[in-house]
Specification:
Elements lengths: L1 E6 L4 E8 L3 E9 L1 H4 L7 H22 L9 E7 L3 H18 L3 E5 H7 L12 E6 L4 E8 L2 E7 L5 H11 L6 H9 L24 H13 L4 H30 L3 E5 L6 H13 L3 E3 L10 H13 L24
Parallel strand pairs: 1-4, 4-5, 6-9, 9-10
Antiparallel strand pairs: 1-2, 2-3, 6-7, 7-8
The structure holds 5'-O-[(R)-(carboxyoxy)(hydroxy)phosphoryl]adenosine (KG4) and zinc ion (ZN).
The site of 5'-O-[(R)-(carboxyoxy)(hydroxy)phosphoryl]adenosine (KG4) has 19 residues, from helix 5 and helix 6.
């Protein structure tokens, strides 16, 4: 089976070809960072127009890289939600039209399932069941992954997602969009001991997260400081440390609760080096192995959608009709399409 994967849920156009025998054959990504940078955040209308511009050239690129023709594709998987309505529609319309023209099946995929399964794409030692920490720009959740599609959400953020908090604090400190990587870079210059920020919900039982109080604390510390370059770096360091420790604490709890020895860390914030170091140390302590997708597959990409699509298509799933159906809001534990 040769699956074309299409990701267009937010501000990255990702296209990939996954072969059931040979694995990932080619993948290409167009990032819209430059388009949205002047606005300090993603502008939905610009995002969908940009997807429409890049989707066809990206397909041509992966086909030529894999030395294949579009008629070699046997199925198409695309992100059907959650995400921005316009952006999702571009990917879904393209997938459905191409599927119809080629006479092959299509299947809408849940974006977070793509993130969740991404480490399986390249690491044959990983298998179900595992605990997954999904940390992206829109979601922060701990999931008990029993099997493909069997996802029990153990806990999630009650307010901002971790990536969103990174982006907002980065904006406050005057860093360029997207803020997460820029804040992580700046934190390297910060003094570790100067500020210790609160670890939200750490004294409460359960697996939920909260970052809005931490955001307010960070804002107040910034306002009370001289706002020098060193203040900025020290605050970035303390903020990142508080987010990382709060993620580690709840993840450790989830591993103990499920008695699971495999942990997957996925989603954009999973690219954060301080988080990876702290998760590795906690994994050692818990005698658990921690799995990450390769850096480029932490953030949005077509490969994870092609792979999740392959897993589902292989068990016979297909879009039930030609109707175009996307879900901007779509809970991960309700994967049966509405
Ligand atoms: O998974 P993703 O690409 O898109 C969503 O599905 O949301 O995640 C993007 C998020 C952004 O908030 C971005 O700032 C954050 O991931 N991010 C990081 C790092 N790289 C990306 N946050 C902290 N440290 C990083 N190195
Ligand atoms: Zn994502």
């Amino acid at each position: 089976m040769l699956v074309l994967g299409i990701e267009s849920s937010c501000d990255d156009t990702g296209i990939a070809l996954f072969d059931s025998d040979l694995g990932l054959l080619a993948e290409a990504l167009h990032s819209q960072t430059a388009t949205h940078q002047p606005y300090g955040g993603v502008v939905p209308e610009l995002a969908s127009r940009d997807h429409a511009r890049h989707i066809v050239p990206l397909l041509a690129k992966v086909l030529s890289e894999a030395k294949l023709d579009k008629r070699d594709i046997t199925a198409i998987a695309y992100t059907a939600g959650p995400g921005l309505m316009g952006s999702l529609l571009v990917g879904a319309c393209f997938a459905k039209a191409l599927g119809y023209a080629l006479g092959i099946p299509t299947l809408g995929i849940h974006h977070l399932e793509g993130h969740l399964l991404a480490p399986l794409l390249e690491d044959p030692t990983l298998d179900f069941p595992f605990v997954a920490l999904l940390v992206s720009g829109g979601h922060t959740m701990l999931v008990d992954v029993q099997d493909l599609g069997a996802y029990q959400i153990l806990g999630e953020s009650l307010d901002d997602a971790a990536g969103e908090a990174f982006d907002k604090i980065a904006k406050l400190l005057g860093l360029p969009f997207p803020g997460g990587p820029a804040l992580a870079e700046l934190a390297l210059q910060g003094h570790a001991k100067r500020f210790v920020f609160p670890r939200p919900l750490s004294h409460k039982p359960g697996f939920d997260f909260s970052f809005s109080g931490l955001k307010t604390h960070t804002l107040q510390t910034w306002k009370a400081s001289l706002q020098s370059d060193q203040d900025k770096a020290d605050i970035a360091h303390a903020f990142q440390e508080a987010v990382v420790q709060s993620l580690v604490l709840k993840t450790k709890r989830a591993l103990a609760h499920t008695n699971c020895k495999r942990l997957v860390v996925a989603g954009g914030v999973g690219a954060n080096k301080a988080l990876r170091q702290a998760m590795d140390a906690m994994g050692d302590e818990m005698n658990a192995k921690v799995y990450y997708p390769r850096m480029a597959f932490c953030t949005d990409n077509g490969a994870m959608i092609a792979y999740a699509g392959y897993k589902r298509l292989a068990r016979g799933e297909r879009d039930p009709s030609l109707a175009i159906h996307v879900q901007p809001s779509w809970p991960l534990d309700k994967l049966e399409r509405e």
